[in-house]
Amino acid sequence: xxxxxxxxxxxxRVKWGVNKDHQWIAKGQLAHHEIEMLISHWDELKNISYVxxxxxSNHLITNxxxxxxxxxxxxxxxxxxxxxxxxxxxSYNYLQLGSDRWAAMIAAWNxxxxxxxxxxxxxxxxxxxxxxxxxxxxxxxxxxxxLQLQSLKFNTQINYVTPARYExxxxxTSSAVHCGIVIALTAMIDxxxxxxxxxxxxxxxxxxxxxxxxxxxxxxxEFPFVEIxxxxxxxxxxIADDIFQSDPK
Length: 249
Description:
Blueprint: E1 3-9, E2 13-20, E3 23-31, H1 38-42, E4 48-55, H2 59-71, E5 76-78, E6 84-85, E7 88-90, H3 99-112, E8 116-121, E9 124-130, E10 135-143, H4 145-155, H5 173-200, E11 206-210, H6 214-217, E12 226-227, H7 231-246
Parallel strand pairs: 1-4, 4-5, 7-10, 8-11, 11-12
Antiparallel strand pairs: 1-2, 2-3, 6-7, 8-9, 9-10
Helix pairs in contact: 3-7
């Protein structure tokens, strides 16, 4: 496989990586307001033959990226969710499913080929379920840790200061907010496990955590999991492989 530039445009950050022969040879990320810095980062890239990207951001950011792509002469394949792709069947309304979630699940399915709980903790937290026979059953979306904190900050009189440690029974308001967010997010994951077993009749075999908020909750997860950085980028490479196989041109 030739060198592929994969780009994941999230709600607040842009992540990218260059993959050659199924190995990452370069990676980076930056905030939306730093997007022009991609020019200096990508100016050092050599022999990029294909660009594949996912976006859940607004048109302004996407248009800025398209201008940057054009300045390098890159032709971009923007992915969209489908009813079936790369061995994964989609039960969700694919017209409403974010392409980042779809790419992440394709990465998970193609890595494990078994039942998965795919958790991404970013601006929003998503918890998505894949059956052992390769069906995306559905998933949940809740505000991520930052959005939960911002909601309290701007809609209440709570005075929040980042606490130094986690407490089982918080005794300060800052700790109560911090620990409450952690428990809310981990409880969502726990409940998803329970619902999967109740309705599918077997336990989820793989739990994958990804996203910038993983560090906040990982020590509070009470079942086995694997952390995979940039799961969306991995999925984009799987999709690129599939495209090459179906149309080598």
